[in-house]
């Protein structure tokens, strides 16, 4: 036979093999997803086999459930290649179907029950949102494996509900602007993690990012900065103008996109500080009258809205009217953080306002802090006429807190404790655990730039939202938890992905799963499946939680050091001490290493689950 024919036959055999291989490929679902469901009860019986003859059915005439059915079908196609048709429920289709319903009887409307038996997968939500969360659990139970023929689901009953009602993430689009497509992707990530609130930080000193029809200059002028500082306020600038804003049409589109995924967008208009962009557009709203410049560097700026100028209140009412119309959310975030009072102290109008209102400093608060409270309260009352409530950063406590304000506790948890004990609602977002602009490793030299700090994955996971200082009868005031991504040092979408993935996974379990069911090593075992999904999606995610950790103890007397190497998942560690780059052929670490010479220890890990971590260098000195 000629060589050409042989090659053809070989190719044919390989082709048939690949084809049948893919035809038969079968994987088994695992219900240990993130966030971990509250209750998973295995059932007896034969498994449900999902294949291309399975269909998804939804309640007739329910557009929301129809949309959710399509989401589920799309998710399954992404993770397996299997395409499932969606159909209206006719009651005739009882076998080999995934049935979506929304009449599960549970006090928590976001609850769902996922029941799997040989013939049927039923997701029954206590509401359409609950069903959507059940859909997320089902899709996360399937490891992303392109070209699967069958997924085996062992019989189970999962009964699940969220621990907290506010489960969110914030994104700052003022310091850096992100395209609508990315905002939607961020919302998709929230949905994947059973979150239900997207806090959209739309305005700040470095840019105003939402079109306001009554004040066109906000978008025209306030959204553009002439250039941006390089690095951490180095005094050097890049010379490139930077800016952009979302039109109201774009905002509506994003709000609808989030709504389809049962996510409420909470917009933030940060006031009365962090307003340089607005002041640049409308300088008459500042104490000095300007001129002002959209900030080109990072930080806190003395120029804020003039609290003594009646036009400031008119401006805020007009802006918030448009915001309230654009966002159906019950809550509007009005910022309130980092508002210096130096201009107010020197401004005739502000001081006249303090007199007019008969504001007096006391042992707890300055008159100017109380002046900020006057603005906050005015805005709160105004928004109440539109059926809205306010959320503010914990500084809003400072001049006296009004009864209906919700506090976002960011400077630690103390503000949250004070507010909850006073009977105010609270969302916990402390920098120590939920500032995702902070580094997630101590090896910062090779990391994408971060603002500083250290918030590793385990730290995020370790948070207990209800500290001991809040008694049981006040615990209900802790509405929930969220993480914040400030973007001074996050200029690109890929960088943003890196900062939130996978810390968002740890966050989601803090938000969703009861405290007594949470366990970090169990979480770590469940995480690779999520990472596999991120990889398939092409996301930039961090594996730093899986790094080798070296623990050095030095015996100064004897001039020796002992080094213990660990990984969170007990993966095998290989190391060198001669300066060469370790491979899986290097020494296998089995017990603590002893050194009596200064040494450069290099270690690496090999895993078969696709998680790769960098070589870790540990400089061992004996003093
Ligand atoms: C904040 O981080 N300034 C709320
Ligand atoms: Zn003033």
Structure description:
Helices cover 31% and strands 20% of the residues. With 623 residues, the protein is of the alpha/beta class. The protein has 3 domains: 6-160, 2-Layer Sandwich (Chitobiase, domain 2), CATH 3.30.379.10; 166-544, Alpha-Beta Barrel (TIM Barrel); 547-620, Immunoglobulin-like, CATH 2.60.40. The protein has an 8-stranded parallel β-sheet. A 7-stranded mixed β-sheet has the order 2-10-7-8-6-4-5, covered by helices on one side. The protein has a 4-stranded antiparallel β-sheet with strand order 26-25-28-29, with no helix packed on it. It is globular. Acetamide binds next to loops. Residues 287, 306-308, 343-344, 347, 349-350 line the site of zinc ion.
Which keywords apply here?
Chitobiase, domain 2, binds acetamide, 623 residues, Immunoglobulin-like, 20% strand, seven-stranded mixed beta sheet, globular, eight-stranded parallel beta sheet, 29 strands, 3 domains, binds zinc ion, TIM Barrel, alpha/beta, single chain
């Amino acid at each position: 036979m000629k060589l050409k024919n042989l090659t053809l036959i070989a190719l044919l055999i390989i082709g048939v093999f690949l084809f049948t291989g893919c035809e038969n490929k079968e994987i088994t679902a695992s219900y240990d997803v993130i966030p971990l469901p509250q209750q998973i009860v295995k059932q007896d019986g034969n498994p449900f086999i999902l294949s291309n003859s399975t269909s998804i059915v939804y309640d007739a005439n329910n557009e929301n459930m129809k949309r959710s059915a399509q989401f589920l079908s799309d998710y399954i196609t992404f993770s397996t290649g299997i395409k499932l048709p969606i159909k209206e429920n006719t009651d005739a289709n009882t076998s080999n179907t995934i049935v979506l319903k929304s009449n599960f009887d549970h006090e928590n409307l976001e609850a769902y029950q996922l029941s799997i038996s040989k013939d049927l997968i039923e997701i029954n939500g206590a509401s359409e949102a609950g069903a959507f969360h059940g859909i997320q659990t089902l899709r996360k139970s399937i490891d992303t494996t392109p070209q699967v023929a069958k997924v085996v689901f062992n019989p189970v009953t999962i009964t699940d509900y969220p621990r907290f009602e506010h489960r969110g993430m914030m994104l700052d689009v003022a310091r850096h602007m992100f395209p609508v497509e990315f905002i939607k992707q961020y919302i998709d990530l929230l949905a994947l993690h059973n979150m239900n609130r997207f806090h959209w930080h739309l305005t700040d000193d470095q840019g105003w990012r939402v079109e306001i029809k009554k004040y066109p200059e906000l978008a025209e002028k306030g959204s553009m900065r002439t250039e941006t500082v390089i690095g951490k306020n180095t005094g050097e600038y890049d010379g490139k103008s930077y800016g952009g804003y979302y039109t109201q049409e774009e905002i509506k589109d994003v709000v609808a996109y989030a709504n389809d995924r049962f996510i409420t967008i909470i917009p933030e208009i940060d006031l009365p500080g962090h307003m340089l962009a607005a002041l640049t557009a409308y300088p008459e709203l500042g104490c000095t009258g300007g001129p002002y410049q959209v900030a080109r560097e990072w930080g806190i700026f003395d120029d804020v809205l003039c609290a003594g100028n009646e036009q400031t209140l008119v401006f805020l009412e007009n802006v918030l009217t448009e915001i309230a119309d654009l966002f159906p959310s019950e809550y509007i975030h009005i910022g309130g953080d980092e508002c210096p009072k130096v201009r107010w102290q020197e401004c005739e109008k502000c001081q006249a306002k303090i007199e007019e209102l008969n504001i007096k400093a006391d042992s707890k608060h300055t008159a100017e802090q109380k002046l900020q409270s006057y603005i906050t309260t005015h805005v709160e009352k105004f928004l109440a006429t539109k059926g809205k409530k306010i959320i503010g950063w914990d500084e809003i406590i400072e001049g006296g807190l009004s009864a209906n304000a919700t506090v976002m506790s960011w400077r630690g948890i103390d503000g949250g404790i004070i507010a909850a004990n006073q009977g105010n609602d609270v969302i916990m977002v402390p920098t120590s655990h939920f500032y995702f602009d902070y580094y997630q490793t101590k090896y910062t030299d090779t990391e994408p730039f971060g603002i500083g700090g250290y918030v590793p994955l385990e730290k995020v996971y370790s948070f207990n939202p209800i500290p001991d200082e809040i008694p049981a009868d006040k615990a209900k005031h802790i509405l929930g938890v969220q993480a914040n991504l400030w973007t001074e040092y996050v200029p690109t979408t890929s960088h943003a992905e890196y900062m939130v993935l996978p810390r968002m996974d740890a966050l989601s379990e803090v938000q969703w799963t009861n405290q007594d069911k949470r366990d970090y090593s169990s979480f770590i075992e469940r995480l690779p499946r999520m990472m596999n999904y991120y990889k398939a999606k092409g996301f930039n995610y961090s594996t730093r939680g899986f790094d080798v950790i070296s623990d050095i103890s030095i015996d100064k007397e004897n001039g020796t050091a002992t080094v213990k190497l660990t990984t969170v998942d007990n993966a095998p560690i290989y190391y060198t001490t001669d300066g060469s780059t370790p491979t899986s052929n290097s020494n296998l670490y089995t017990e603590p290493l002893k050194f009596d010479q200064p040494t450069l220890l290099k270690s690496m890990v090999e895993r078969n689950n696709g998680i790769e971590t960098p070589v870790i260098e540990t400089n061992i000195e004996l003093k």
